[in-house]
Amino acid sequence: MNTSTQSWSADVRRASSRRGDVPSAPVMTGVGPSKAGSSRPAIGASGSVGVVRGVEGRLRRGESERPPARPSLVELVFDHMHSEWAMEVIRGVEQVLSAERTALVLSELHGNRGQKDRWFDDLLDRRPLGVILVVLKLDERQRRRLTEAGVPVVFVDTAEEQPPEVPVVGSANWAGGLAVARHLTGLGHRRIAMISGPTALLCSRARAGGFLSALAAEGVPAAPHRIRYGDFRAHGGYVHGLELLDRPDRPTAIFAGSDYQALGVMRAAHELGLSVPRDLSVVGYDDLSITEWSGPPLTTVRQPLRDMAATAARMIMTLARGQRPPYLRIDLATELVLRQSTAPPGGS
Description:
It contains nine helices and 15 strands. The strands form three sheets. It has a seven-stranded mixed β-sheet with strand order 3-5-4-6-7-8-14, with helices on one face. Helix 7 packs across helix 8. The longest helix is centred in the first third of the chain and has 16 residues.
């Protein structure tokens, strides 16, 4: 998806309203960003799709002089969402909203501050029941404006520590990193490297923290040149993998902070003539479906992305009804999934 203007066809259907018989705004059909920002319509409860028009357009058409019912929609926001990781989150949210007869709007910010500001203004015009932010931040001014507008927010895999009153859903990242280190040291590895995600992200630091803590407990040194931070993408794993593996003291095992990074590492190993797992053990993180089809199938940490997203959606619907969720901080359990990409170091 990009920010270029795309043509749209108007759909005369109206999205169902969960609050009485007042019809909600007309919706638009099509695929791509709206003209005002970068929101993408997603399938709603009654088969309609769309981004809801503002109140002003309906008043110009003379439909009603009274304020409309609040649109029955929830906004799900990513920085980047062109990945299987993002699709798992979308599926989890949609599963809950479909049962609630609530539409879903997807927005992608592309790491662009100006676009984020435009999206935020458009968001307030749409007046959704709530917003789910995925690995994103809000500044104090944005928090205040959402509170004043009565729009609740839930974070999934928050990029930074949130105030105690802000709902957050994540996973046990520290425990996940710990499990990987224990697995690799248990196989006999001592030269172990790590390629985590960006240091600015809380989940990256937590995975690295658990991993390094377990190495220290086992008396395994964490050489500084073997501790890397990337961007969770395959190319970053590939570049770091080449640098780590093209050395006389190359590691015998690498923990990658995402499945995509792990695939990049495996490609680097292949290009250098190394066999996985005979010459190099590789562990990923997330347990995306692609891990079962890599060569060899990837040992990884299962992060329950769909359940995390569904939990966040249920929290948003609870907040939209004016109720307080039973818990504001939820970390779901992670699990180490053993496949064929790890083995004792070669020659053991």
